[in-house]
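request received
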Amino acid sequence: MNLSKDGWSGLAVLAASLFLFALTLGLKDNPLVPIGPGYYPRIVLAVTAVFALALVVSDFLSEKSVRARESLNYLLVIEMFALFGVYVGALPYLGFRISTFLYVAASNALLDPPRSLKSAARVLLVAAITTVVVYYVFERYLTVLLPRGRWTNF
Amino acid sequence: MFELLGVGLLDMFQVKYLVPLFIGTLIGVVGGALPGITITMTVIVVLPFTFGLEPLQGLACMIGVYVGGETGGLITSCLLGIPGKPSAVATTFDGFPMSRNGEPGRALWLGIWASILGGLLGAVVLVAATGPLAQLALRFGPWEYFALFVLALSMVAGLVESSLVKGLLSGALGCVVTVLGNDPVMGQPRLALGISWLEGGIPFLPVLIGVFAFSQIMSELEKSTKNTEALSAALNLAVSHVKVLWEILSRPFLLLWSTFIGLVIGVLPAIGGSAANMLAYDQAKKFSSRPEKFGSGIPEGIIASEASNNANVAGSLVTIMAFGIPGDAVTAVMLGALTIHGIQSGPLFISQNPALAYGMFAAYILAHPLVLILLFLGVRWVLRIVIVPKSILFPVVLVLCVVGAYALGNSMATVYVLFVFGILGYLMVKLGFPLAPFILGVILGDQIEINLVRSLMTDSNLWLFVTRPISALLLAAAAASIVLSIWQHRRMQKKSAVAAGAADF
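response:
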């Protein structure tokens, strides 16, 4: 099948919306109201499926043009997402202060690798300042209780 | 009305409101000037700081960011040729050539004064039109609201340039997000997929923060360009302000028409200043007696772009305050801030919260002279801040996004939502799906469902949607906007086919 990324993304959305639509059929109506919890989701999911199908069909029928590939640094994007995922995962275990310090230092080093002791010190300093300022502003002045670590209790 | 506005202005002069407004304006100017950092991202960063403030303090700060950002974006557009934000792209076309022609001060201050004048003209409409529009909306029943929200979604989806189907699908996907978790009418569990944090539904703010912050930051990172452009320290920004003001005021039609375009685009849901400045620039060129000069550094291009993008802010505020529909992503964040403080936006907003509403008008008006003062005093400082490396800026912004999401419910669940939708937002951008319809779908999905169910519980007759005049009119407008978009897309395809054919020969 000659599909571009439009067609494949349409197929993925179509499959997901049909799956969710099937799940709505199992929802039980509330005897107190004439319209059950599945009524609106069915409409939305059916409309989504129709649009997704339209995208697949239009992509299938369209002429594909070969476009020049841009040279983009996807590896850096994946690394940043992974780092952020680790940060979010570590927050409940290490607590805000430790995980934020580590995250800011690591991502700063990833985006602009330190090549001397001075630049390594700058990375650590930026991480420390960010963590301390954000922590104090939010905890002390804006009464937002930031996460404490289960492992560190800090 | 004017009495309430006077009270609002006096209130805003109190230190407790003036300080957040000033800080917001300052952050907005800097955020707007930073290439790669949009006003949406700046307001997202500011959002968590407003949680501990009074509602009007927080909103004044956000309005300051919004107005400051719209003006700040022109600094780098004019002096570096890099638009600080999408709504300043058209400013670059003539602002930067004018700077290169040896008149950086003229280019900069033409933009600043046009922004201020466009914004203040927009304020007149904001104050005068919001109340009457809200009164009109008070006549709406659930049928009309349903139709209004459908119209908003169809317009946004239809205005997407790349693909109408993708625009519609993006809006529908936004609505799908709102059907996951408890139903908003009876609170019955549905479609939680066995994920505990999905059971209560997905709050829209972490979705919005995730989608916008990640898509913008990651799109910047993949380009791997550095923003440390060489700055000329000896840039001469001296200019006669009387001359610059006269240059603008001697073109009243251009100023008024560009302001009008900005206002109309602002009132239309979720389109934003990026469309306003391009359209105003295009219109200025079409009406000009010297269209061939556009792009070479003439004042008309700068005035049109900057007057329209600041008036756009006023238009967006009209929509959110009169109907509860965000005019763009920035007002969507403001809508979230209102919700956090337990304030219901919509037609009753002004009558139920007059002090807050007129305080917002006052903040919008006062933000303009504040921007002017800030730029008089420190435009050179802004230029220096602009060269902060992205390697420092982006991690800090992402940490603030996490704090903002976490503070919404003091729970990690909203942070997980932020991360998941961050990935989704980036993927959507890479696959060419527009984000504006998606976000509007997430914001309006619940309201569409509530009003649909309410109308059907009041009367199960579906014909009422097309027999009640306002509802019928709104639905007809929704259908017309889709038909118009299809026609426009076909016309564009034909044009590009003809162009390709001509190129073949």
